[in-house]
Amino acid sequence: MCNYCGCREFPLIGRLSQEHWDIEECAGALRRAIVEGRHGDAATLLRELLARLIPHIAAEESGLFAELRADGALADEVERLCAEHADIHGVLGTIDDAAPDWSATGEGPRRRSRCP
Fold first, then answer.
1. How far is CA 72 from its chain centroid?
2. For 4, phi and psi rounded to 5 degrees?
3. CA–CA distances in Å: residue 51 to residues 26, 27, 41, 47, 58
């Protein structure tokens, strides 16, 4: 989301922008915990990340992205963003929270988006 046009003044876009920031911070903390071998912390951070990420992606894809796609002007960009979501799901979907293999988290199957 942009930083200069004022679109964050729209409540939905402002909320999604703040969620992006929170998700990025959580993902960074998760990455650091994995790299540092703090796997107990990583498991907790993974649950936190998923709790933030899943509803955020659903709100983007069923709300904002659906509207942008219907408008047509940004359809290609929406498809790119949906593909990023699919990549995120692919990586996170490879992690077994009962017995995580943290070394494998850098690679994951690429999944097609379920974006509407």
1. 23
2. -125, -15
3. 11, 12, 15, 6, 12
